[in-house]
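Quick sanity check, DUF4870 domain-containing protein:
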Amino acid sequence: MKDQKILNALSYFSLFFAPLIVPIAIWIFSATESTKHHAKVALLTHILPTIGAIVSVFIVGVVGFSTNSSNVTGFIGLGLIVSIGIMIVVLAIFNIVRGIQALVAKDDDPLFNSID
């Protein structure tokens, strides 16, 4: 049971040292469904800022080609950079909180422990 808690927490804390590799490895090699679930959630929260950045670059490119005003493009680009930054901070806080919750979870907590 203690190994499962550590793997759950490691999935979330991997944001700081290997954001894609660790959750994928835990998801593939884990024995319990609970640990696989937490690895999937952690992987999703690690990928979301990258997807947001790609969409932002696409939007700024489309706006840049469709208008001749650099002010509009700059304003939209700055807004997207700020929104991506806020998303990164919120997801980092989420991962820290979930990692701590996984470490201090009781053995009978259904959110962090599997029934099987």
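Posting the structure with no commentary besides this: Residues 2-104 form one domain.
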